[in-house]
Specification:
66% of the residues lie in helices and 0% in strands. It has 79 residues and is mainly alpha-helical. It has one domain (5-78).
Amino acid sequence: MDLRWSDLVPCVSFFAAGRAVAGIVTLLMQLSLIFWPAAAIWARRASNNPEVDRKLAEFAEVHKVDPYAKPAKKFRQAV
C-alpha cells in the first residue's frame, strides 16, 4: 500500500480539488486525532473517484475550441 498526501494531510486534497467545505470538515477531523483515519479514508476515496475523470473528459470534449473556426457573429449582424 502506497502512502499518499491524502493519508497524511487529508484536508489539502479537498482544498486542491476546490471543495472548501469538505476541506474544512476534514481539517476539523484532523484536529481530533481520533477521526484522522476516517478523514484520510474519505480523502483517498474522493481522490480515486473515476466519475470525476469521466465528467472532466466530457466537459473538455464539449468545450473544445476549434482554432480554425470562424468567430461567431453577433446577433445584430446575423439578422
